[in-house]
């Protein structure tokens, strides 16, 4: 058996998330596994992923792995999968043979997300499923001040969904930066791992602070409460992108600068 890692990007607006689910007929996992199975000439199931994304969430560099008896070159895996993917909103960026020590999820050291907000009174047309629309104005400096409270190791109980199944709510955030280009606001966050809806709930708090409805210190108060009901609204899924997953250099995975894509 060979283990193959793939770097993929996808527009999540047309999918019911990454994972195959009962009653759902259109997920990223199912669509991709069908393409991989064709190039492998055998049924490939149970692909493992660095981070499961929800309905409407995008990725500019998701990482997965699968095991197969088929022997193909990295180029053949990449080109073959892109040929057989029936939905053109998924693309395989690279393929790389790895040892059985590698696991897309458990070998990941860090994950990075970007959340994009369009702050203007008029709704977006072309980017309606690619950004989160906020109908008012936002104060960048207030959001940047609040971002500092998330840096470091914290209990993020207040920032995860009640349905989150993670064993521990304690996560380490390595950086959180809020920037602005015209009417667009970008929240970039990197951590060792994330809880369910953690990024979208952080974005919801930052939106409330940026709008002037709460002070920057409220971000810390929500952290200290360790109670989801004390937080803000969960921000929409449309603006969320998984942009990078970091692994040990020994796996020699390709590196792309996916942050420049969005």
Summarize the structure.
This protein has 262 residues and is of the alpha+beta class. The protein is 20% helix and 29% strand. Helix 3 (140-147) packs across helix 4.
How many domains in all? 2
Mean pLDDT: 94
Q: Number of helical runs?
A: 5
CATH class of the largest domain: Alpha Beta
Strand element count? 10
Shape: globular
Low-confidence region ranges: none
Give the amount of beta strand, in percent. Answer: 25-35%
How many strands, which pairing sense, and closed or not: the largest β-sheet? 10 strands, mixed
The amount of helix comes to 10-25%
Sheet/helix structural class? alpha+beta
Please identify which CATH superfamily of the largest domain we are dealing with: Pseudouridine synthase I, catalytic domain, C-terminal subdomain
N-to-C CA distance: 37 Å
Pattern of helices and strands: EHEEHEEEHEEEHHE
Radius of gyration: 19 Å
- Looking at the overall shape, the CATH architecture of the largest domain is 2-Layer Sandwich
Report on this model:
The protein is 20% helix and 29% strand. It is an alpha+beta fold and 262 residues long. The chain has two domains: 2-107, Alpha-Beta Plaits (2-Layer Sandwich), CATH 3.30.70.580; 110-242, Pseudouridine synthase I, catalytic domain, C-terminal subdomain (Alpha-Beta Plaits, 2-Layer Sandwich), CATH 3.30.70. Strands 1, 2, 3, 4, 5, 6, 7, 8, 9 and 10 form a ten-stranded mixed beta sheet that branches. The longest helix has 13 residues, at 28-40.
């Amino acid at each position: 058996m060979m283990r193959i890692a793939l770097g993929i990007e996808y527009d999540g607006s047309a999918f019911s998330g990454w994972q195959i689910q009962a009653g759902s007929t259109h997920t990223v996992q199912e669509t991709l596994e069908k393409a991989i199975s064709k190039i492998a000439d055998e049924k490939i199931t149970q692909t493992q992923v660095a981070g499961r994304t929800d309905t409407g969430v995008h990725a500019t560099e998701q990482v997965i792995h699968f095991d197969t008896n088929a022997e193909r070159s990295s180029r053949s895996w990449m080109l073959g999968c892109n040929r057989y993917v029936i939905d053109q909103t998924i693309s395989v960026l690279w393929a790389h043979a790895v040892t059985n020590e590698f696991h897309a999820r458990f070998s990941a050291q860090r994950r990075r997300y970007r959340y994009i907000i369009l702050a203007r009174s008029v709704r977006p047309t072309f980017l309606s499923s690619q950004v989160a629309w906020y109908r008012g104005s936002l104060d960048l400096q207030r959001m940047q001040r609040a971002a500092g409270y998330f840096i470091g190791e914290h209990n993020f109980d207040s920032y995860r969904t009640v349905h989150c199944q993670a064993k521990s709510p304690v996560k380490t955030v390595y950086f959180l930066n809020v920037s602005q280009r015209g009417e667009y606001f970008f929240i970039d966050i990197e951590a060792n791992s994330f809880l369910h809806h953690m990024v979208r709930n952080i974005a919801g708090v930052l939106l409330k602070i940026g709008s002037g409805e709460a002070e920057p210190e409220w971000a810390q108060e929500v952290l200290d409460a360790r109670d989801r009901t004390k937080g803000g609204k969960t921000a929409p899924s449309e603006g969320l992108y998984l942009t990078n997953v970091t692994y040990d250099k020994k796996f020699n995975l390709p590196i792309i600068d996916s942050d420049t894509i969005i």
